[in-house]
Amino acid sequence: MPPSPPSTPLLPLQSFDIAKFANRFAAHLQLLAAALHKASASAATGPTPLLCRLRALHAHILASGFKPRAHILNRLIDLYAKAGDLPSARRLFDAASPAPTDAVAATSLVNAYAASGHLPLARCLFDRTPLPARDTVFYNAMISGYARAGNGLPALLVFCEMLQDGFRPDDYTFTGVLSAAAAIIGLEPTHCGQLHCSVVKSGTEHAISVSNALIALYFKCDSPDTAVIAREVFDRMVERDELTWTTMVVGYVRRGDITEARQVFDDMEGRFNVVWNAMISGYVHCGLFLEALEMFRKMKSIGIPLDEFTYTSVLSACESAGLFNHGKAVHAHIIRSGSDLNPVSALPVENVLVTLYSKCGKIDVAKRIFDDIERKDPVSWNSILTGYVNCGHIDDALAIFNVMPHKHELAWLVMISGFVHNGLAEEGLKLFSRMRAEGAKPCDYTYASTIAACGELGALKHGQQLHAQLIQFGYESSNSAGNALLTMYAKCGAVEEAHIVFLVMPNLDSISWNAMIAALGHHGHGREAIELFDQMIGGGIFPDHITFLTILSACNHAGLVDEGFRYFESMKNDYGISPGEDHYAQLIDLLGRAGRIREAWDMIKSMPFEPGPSIWEAVLSGCRIHGDMDLGIHAAEQLFKMIPRHDGTYVLLSNIYAAIGRWENVARVRKLMKDRGVKKEPGCSWIEVANKVHVFLVNDARHPEVQEVYKFLEILGVKMRKLGYVPDTKFVLHDVESEKKEYALSTHSEKLAVGYGLLKLPAGATVIVLKNLRICGDCHTAIMFMSKAVGREIVVRDVKRFHHFKNGECSCGNYW
DNA sequence: ATAGGGTTAG
């Protein structure tokens, strides 16, 4: 804690003669400068204690009637500038004009302006200083000012001006020039070479700071060759400082070369904690969390000072690795070790703690930490917002969002994607509109989330509008937006559009491939999906567990049993990806649909883990298709045991009882629910509703029968609410900002169709599926089963053609 | 010179 400003005068004025004053002042100013240098970042706003002392001293100087000579004046200006009181510095400077004979004061001011982000002011002063008053240091101030602000080109121009004006650059000049050059994006290796040459010519290459800047410059170039040169510069250095090691380690880390970084680190002489921190954060960025933790442990044990940077990286490692107990231990360590954390630079620590606690489900702890943060910044707000969203507390998140002082771009994004993930896609769209109305600028990720919302809603027109906006904003080459568009078009049934997006995307990543394969699979194009998968492999893209989930699902949709098996094996053997529960579930679903329910059963028994809900769901659906009711009920009951409070299970179980007409069991389910305090009605009501339903396949909102469909949906929606159901996304009536209501169902409705289609339908009941989409895999399957169930032909119109379903087959020849 | 918050695929 710096001393508070003295209330009594610093100096007893009467005891010194004027000459001695001058010396005393100079000495005091010197002391203040040293104190100022030590007290770097301070949390306090307003005048700092040091500034108060400076003002008091200045007041003494004025009161003494002593007219400070140039060097004292310069020092005063410098101190005011460094203490952050630029207006005072400027006043003194201007009062000393118009005859500044040296550049010292101007340099101080240029430095201060640049440091406080007022580059134009610095430049203005720079330009107004006449040539005779300039010196090398003066140019250096301007150059390093630009360099620190990341303005590479202006810095180089000042450097040229300096040479033209006939000044000799020194090591400081080159340190500035090189770090300015490093800020230029797309710098060519030849440029680095040219700068390197002029460094050598000037004879400053032995200065450590110049070599350091040179190394940083070569690393920034991001080519393997320049990294080698950086290494050569490093090897030739006779003397190295902390910055040298940091630059090397960070250089390798940024290139993703963690091994080289570690080698440099191991060669390091000295115990610089910044380098340790850099190494830890390097490990975290590479996903090597355990190595990061090990390094932290070692750092602690050999007594390298830990600081805010260390804690932030280590906590982030714990959070990313899911090692919450470890994270809590580090938190405890921070508290135990006393609060020697700088309140300004500890902010990232607090922010990552918020993330850590919310990630492990302790949102209340996260909230407490958040509330205790004194000076919350946008990251703090976004962290707690994300915490609530990820815990599914979307209402709390919204409440926080609404009281946020400055809604950062990311906050909008988190909120919109939060809505979409919590089944409130429509709210997401509304929020996007609000964002635009409030003049906030969406980034490509925001577009990605909003477009995903359209996909969930099946709101093709809105999706197209967003597509157009995206191009206007210049985001058309963004991968995230492209992937979202592709998926949106596929979910709206426009596979061709999706494919076009896929074809024109400049940088396909594994998500793009997965999305396109899924799009084809969902629409029943199993063969094409497989073909695309092979292309993906041929293109050297490594498939992940989602790719295999997708390809298995595609095989499932297309009834490609053998292919499904082949890919399941290949996943394990060729790619070393061990199948998870979902992969097994796909395969079991596939077998079940093909009537090979016993094989599916064997597969379950051979699984390396206990079957979970998705497995039993797959068994259940297989049993429903092929009438193996004993196994089906077994599956339903397993499901029931696993998630006893999951309403869906009650629905599922009573559905299957109802389907085989065992109404007494349906009643038992009702009673069970009552006993267990589940408020909702069991699922048989759904069936009662569904069996009387006339639903149409609709591609076009202007379809003559669409009004009837709307009416039905409204009745169904009301009825469901009366029964205590909250209609899920499949049946929500979407009012999508247009004048006329657009009732859109997402691809999930197909699953519903499968469910309904397989029920025993009373004579005369017709179940057709409402869609404004084209017929795709599951939907097709469902209708084929329906045609078998009702024993007569069902004709549905697709966008392109009519499909005639009869006796479980379709005129288009597609096997389900 | 080292640190913290985000998206899209199943």
TrEMBL record:
Signal peptide location: none
Keywords from the named record: Repeat
GO terms (BP aspect): RNA modification
Pfam families xref list: DYW_deaminase, E_motif, PPR, PPR_2
Gene Ontology MF annotations: RNA binding; zinc ion binding
InterPro entries: DYW_dom (IPR032867), E_motif (IPR046848), PPR_At4g14850-like_plant (IPR046960), PPR_rpt (IPR002885), TPR-like_helical_dom_sf (IPR011990)
Domain of life of the source: Eukaryota
Domain DYW: 724-816
Start-end of each PPR repeat: 135-169, 241-271, 272-306, 377-407, 408-442, 509-543
Record protein name field: Pentatricopeptide repeat-containing protein At1g25360-like
Chain's gene name: LOC103705338
